Amino acid sequence: MNRFVRWLSASALALLATIVLLPQPAAAAPIPCGHDCLGISRDAICWEKEWCAVPIEIKGTLPKEGYALPYRTADGTASAPADYTEVREGVLWLKPGGSLQLEVFVEGDSVRERGETFLIEYLDREGRVVATATVVIRDGV
After folding, report:
1. CA-derived radius of gyration, the chain
2. Which residues on adjacent β-strands are paired with residue 40?
3. CA–CA separation, 18 and 39 (whole Å)
4. Per-residue pLDDT at 80
5. pTM: predicted TM-score of the whole model, two decimal places
């Protein structure tokens, strides 16, 4: 009995150490969107053959005139143009009281496959990536 309790205690301790020591997901990087404004990119799950909404959460106050947020898409395990419609240079206008989401089209095929991913990369004025959102494509077949 004592041997079993020690084994159980050691197993529980090993499990706890594994959980604590596992790398945690990175916090979403803030996107500057004005003097008193930060946007937080959020990931999205989308289905094939549909428009997909990728949300952006705003912290603070957007400028009255709005804010132009440059973005582009990048391949992950999904690739354009077979899996989604590529955007090489896009601009999302963030406006107070407006919709705070980016829409991309997810292509469809007749092949059954596991979930695939691609990225939305948000850029600063110099074209550097400041934040990303991961889009997971679910198979509609």
Report:
1. 21
2. 30, 57
3. 33
4. 93
5. 0.74
Q: For residue 43, give the nearest of 131, 115, 135 by alpha carbon.
A: 135
Domains and CATH numbers, the chain: 30-138 (2.60.40.2030)
Structure token digits, residue 67: 């804010």
Nearest-angstrom CA–CA distance, 6 and 56 = 49
Looking at 1-128, which runs of residues are DSSP E strands?
Answer: 30-32, 37-41, 44-47, 50-60, 67-75, 90-94, 101-106, 116-123
The CA distance from 77 to 51, in Å, is 19
Is the predicted pLDDT of residue 92 greater than 60, yes or no? yes
To which H or E segment does residue 138 belong? strand 129-138
Amino acid at position 62, single letter: L
pLDDT tier at 18, thresholds 50, 70, 90: very low
pLDDT at 24: 38
Average pLDDT over residues 100-111: 84
